[in-house]
Amino acid sequence: MLNRKDFLIQIGATGLVATVAPCCAAAAELSAAEGTPIDRRMTFAQTWAKRMMDNVDAELDETTRKRLLQANGRACFLGSNEHNQFQGGVDAFIEQIRKWVKGGPMPIRREGDVVYFDYTQNPAGLKVADGWCLCPLVERGPAGLSGTFCECSVGYVRQMFTEIACKPVRVELLESLKRGGRGCRFRIDLA
Q: What ranges in 33-147 are assigned the alpha helix state H?
């Protein structure tokens, strides 16, 4: 039978192993990655995101997964440089997007109270089809990242258009790269 002191020492050691082991594993992954220190950190973040999304898919129901990822997308937009940048309403935003587009089909159109937004490229002309994505975690990997991750973009686009329209909007993801699509397409209901 263990006495109290031995029991506490044993529990403390177990807790220390449980705390240190994941950190050591993460450090091993980080040091095994190639490239610059920033590349290694990005590789680690991508690996972490893949594991996290696998757990989100395994442990949470679909409604909760969507709500969680969309809340993260909203927070991402609010923390971005784009927050409070768009002024003048939906039509002014559509006109700004038209100025950014460098050839190819128009990625945004308005039909009454509905806006169709095809996220095809950024203002610098980097295209989704070439691997560019709004999210750097998706842009260069990780391979096999769950399509659930795209719900983050729904939250981002919803918050962006809520600010642009100065009222709540509904957003539907019509297509995304991580779900087997050729681009990232959204339907924004302004009514």
A: 37-59, 62-78, 89-100, 136-139
pTM over 0.90, yes/no: no
Instruction: Say if residue 44 is exposed, middle or buried (CB neighbours under 10 Å; 0-12, 13-18, 19+).
Output: middle
Kindly list the domain boundaries of the chain, sorted by start residue. Answer: 61-189
Q: Give the lowest-confidence range in 26-40, 86-100, 113-127, 150-164.
A: 26-40
**CA–CA distance, 191 with 169 (Å, rounded to integer):** 7
The whole-chain average pLDDT of the chain stands at 79
Helix (H) or strand (E) holding 188: strand 184-189
Q: Which of 119, 125, 122 is nearest to 176 (CA)?
A: 119
Among 1.10.3470, 3.30.1380, 1.10.357, 3.30.160, name the CATH number for the domain at 61-189: 3.30.1380
* pLDDT tens sequence across 15-63: 433 333 344 444 445 455 578 998 888 889 889 999 999 999 999 999 9
Rounded to an integer, what distance in angstroms lies between the CA atom of residue 185 and that of residue 154? 10
Sheet-wide strand order for 184-189 = 108-111, 114-119, 184-189, 170-175
